[in-house]
């Protein structure tokens, strides 16, 4: 009886006109005790998935918001085991038939689902089932926030579920055609906005970090360096920053000739292979020189009237790093605090992946980095063991509680530590291998 009342209450909350924050707070205020709270959260998540079948779009939007908050806040492995297929297909239905807001929310939910399941058959199923609906959704309108969400979703599900370079390259092509339609038959007549260009280039760069430059198709990507170089001259700083990051990744993965414009011989085809090779090399060196000058100028750009100081500083700092990389070969080394631990990056590919995933997960990034095995493998990150309070440093009063032989906390802590000691010897540290090509290509 109590369970039915809880379900009815949760359904009513999802169907109400209150904002999203009231959904979360209302679901937690009426319960006491951790166990009851967890049951209530699970029940609300079940009700949210059921609400995706409702006809009212606003109800589905609220349900998707609840799902996103749940997947951001905790690793929902048990829930996924029960309702993986249901959640995936209802989100895909939202992408096919929903409003712009619903499409954005459903796209984000699918990305979170992929990160939660990690490597394996489920991730592959997400990619295979989603690629067509996402491709079609790109054609249904050019609203920037919707396109950006679809791009992030495609990038994430390919990053997790793409098993071979051809699959990754297919997703990269779908993205690229949004801003460079001459590469495909589905020509978009609407000129992409700066926000769409930024989103496309960022998602494309994110997937490029997983590729070996030598495995890329030259027919697909010829001229991409020239296009990205042209973006460095655009007025929008976000576009310039995205293009600068993309160029840094291209130079890092190598095989620059595959990204440069195809060198054309004489009209009668009489140019020898030796001369063609020399002229092709000269062409690439010319591109490098042009980009180097652009990067140097952007690293020192003075702020104009009305310019946002933070974005200007971000641009200067990025292009200073790119300049040092192009001139001396040094990649920026970064360190980010994850709880009490530090996550380091030492390549452009790692940095681009970190920034993209951090932006996608938002407030859930720290939680996922600490507990998501897939992400820990991606970055080779192993958080140190913590006590039950999640910290190495506890107050004197907390120490007294822990030391009490009759303390429930002390008993649970002892069991926890014993289990951790048993497991630690067999624990292996995984590492996600990012393929890096020859920089001297």
Describe the structure.
The structure is a single chain. With 441 residues, this protein is mainly alpha-helical. The chain is 66% helix and 2% strand. Strands 1-2 form a two-stranded antiparallel sheet. Helix 8 packs parallel to helix 10, helix 10 packs across helix 16 and helix 12 packs antiparallel against helix 13.
Secondary-structure topology with pairs:
Blueprint: H1 2-14, H2 20-29, H3 34-51, H4 57-73, H5 77-97, H6 100-117, H7 121-138, H8 144-161, H9 165-176, H10 194-208, H11 218-221, H12 224-231, H13 237-253, H14 273-299, H15 309-328, E1 334-338, E2 341-345, H16 348-361, H17 365-371, H18 373-379, H19 396-403, H20 408-424
Antiparallel strand pairs: 1-2
Helix pairs in contact: 1-3, 3-4, 3-5, 4-6, 5-6, 5-7, 6-8, 7-8, 8-9, 8-10, 9-10, 10-13, 10-16, 12-13, 13-15, 14-15
InterPro entries: ARM-like, ARM-type_fold, IFRD, Interferon-rel_develop_reg_C, Interferon-rel_develop_reg_N
Domain Interferon-related developmental regulator N-terminal: 21-327
Biased composition (Low complexity): 21-32
